[in-house]
Design a protein that fits this description.
The protein folds into 3 domains: about 110 residues, Rossmann fold; about 230 residues, tm_1862 like domain (pyruvate-formate lyase- activating enzyme, Alpha-Beta Horseshoe); about 55 residues, Beta Barrel (OB fold (Dihydrolipoamide Acetyltransferase, E2P)). Helix content is about 35%, strand content about 20%. The protein is built from 13 helices and 17 strands. Helix 7 packs parallel to helix 8, helix 8 runs parallel beside helix 9 and helix 12 packs parallel to helix 13.
């Protein structure tokens, strides 16, 4: 979401004449788009701001702006903690960035503007996309859940869906502009449309995307398992360009932990959901998110999470050690797990995840798979890199003019994170 928001910031600033530079020494305006999901990310912000302040002292007149979730939460206090910051804006008023920049330039005083919620009529925000093959399209903002560890509802507000008309228009424009892949984005994308009148669901959007011939692949990220209703699974099964890829965050493989996280489902519910998907779409790629070291998590409960990874056979999992966040109930609970223990559990879990991912990737050896070519491999410029419909990375040798094309690759080797193969003509 933040990367997508940054592309909108570029679009907004372009309208008032700003261009991007790779050299920060030349920047008239430095913007930090912040993330509050983990304490580590938040701490980095202040070290960036310290360095930027030195630049500002060297080149007076330059502006520093801070947006995103940390800015939404910290507001004015960001300026107290980091003198030198000129503009603080939140997650609900990104569209106001050009005005705030002009204001800071004119008044030469810090400008802080935080909205408590999104405006009733969401303005259309220009965008400059950083990728010409694959595009993000935000379909819903915010989250109505209150997981006890999560700061997102506090900084992103309640769920608010964009209309199908707006989203379809954006998707069609992307198709006409040559984009091949769209990822429908939101904090809880599976809840899409419940707040519209009449209510709709994500399946409707997938069907709309399916009518756009130029768009070869559509994905969605990320959603709550409880909202992944059969009609959405049905749409993925039936719509040709909807990728058989489900990222379904479970967060823990233990019922007591899930209850204390307030996730609103049990391990059994989740397993049945995966079964429903695999019954409908046998080759579906299923990935997830897991947190270890949640306050009070016992060794046995942690091992239930490890066993779940082996049981479900996830293609990949984003794992994280629990990070206490402000405004969240679990941050104040006693029984916080010591950091070394959390990281030990994380290492153990990552080994299990890698073993399972490797096993699943090896099943693809000898198969020919459709790959959307994204660019040159960063590790070997002689090679190209792309993704399967299941979002697995594939590296292979090929000419640059294949970038942006769908090609077939015969898979010859696999590791837990990527596949390698040969182009099939
Ligand atoms: S559903 Fe996701 S975004 Fe919403 S509160 Fe829970 S973890 Fe946070």
């Amino acid at each position: 979401m933040n990367k997508s928001d940054s592309e909108h910031m570029l679009g907004l600033l372009d309208e008032i004449g700003y261009k991007t530079t790779d050299d920060i020494q030349l920047a008239d305006l430095m913007i930090l788009n912040t993330c509050a999901i983990r304490a580590g990310a938040e701490e980095k912000i202040y070290s960036y701001l310290g360095r930027w302040r030195q630049l500002k002292e060297k080149y007076p007149g330059r502006l520093i702006a801070v947006g995103g979730c940390v800015a939404q939460d910290a507001g004015e206090s960001l300026i107290t903690r980091s003198p030198g910051v000129d503009i603080v804006f939140g997650t609900h008023n990104l569209h106001r960035l050009p005005d705030l920049v002009q204001q800071a330039k004119t008044t030469k005083a810090p400008v802080v503007e935080i909205f408590q919620e999104l405006p009733e009529d969401l303005p259309e925000v220009p965008v400059i996309r950083q990728n010409s093959i694959s595009a993000w399209v935000t379909i819903i903002y915010g989250c109505d859940y209150n997981c006890t560890y999560c700061i997102v509802p506090y900084v992103r507000g309640r769920e608010k869906s964009r209309t199908v008309t707006e989203i379809t228009k954006e998707m069609k424009e992307l198709g006409q502009a040559g984009y091949k892949e769209i990822t429908l984005l939101g904090q809880n994308v599976t809840a899409y449309g419940h707040d519209l009148n009449p209510a709709l669901h994500l399946g409707h959007l997938l069907e709309e995307a399916g009518k756009i011939e130029e768009i070869k692949r559509v994905r969605f990220l990320t959603g709550h398992p409880r909202d992944l209703k059969p009609e959405i699974i049905e749409a993925v099964a039936n719509v040709e360009n909807a990728c058989e890829y489900f990222h379904i965050p479970i967060q823990a493989g233990d019922n007591r932990t899930l209850r204390r996280m307030a996730r609103g489902y049990t391990v059994d519910f989740y397993k049945k959901l995966v079964e429903q998907i695999r019954n409908k779409i046998p080759d579906a790629v299923i990935t997830s998110d897991l947190i270890v070291g949640f306050p009070g998590e016992t060794e046995e409960e942690f091992l239930n999470t490890v066993n779940l990874v082996q049981d479900i056979c996830f293609d990949a999992v984003n794992t994280a050690a629990y990070s206490p966040r402000p405004h969240t109930p679990s941050a104040n609970w006693e029984e916080q797990i010591p950091e070394p223990e959390k990281y030990e559990r994380l290492r153990f879990l990552n080994t299990a995840v890698s073993e399972v991912s490797h096993r699943l990737n090896k099943r693809l050896l000898g198969k020919t798979i459709e790959v959307l070519v994204e660019g040159k491999s960063s590790r070997n410029p002689e090679r190209l890199t792309g993704r399967t419909r299941g979002n697995k990375i594939v590296n292979f040798e090929g000419k640059e003019d294949l970038i942006g094309e769908l090609v077939n690759v015969s898979i010859e080797s696999a590791n837990p994170w990527a596949l390698r193969g040969t182009l099939v003509n």
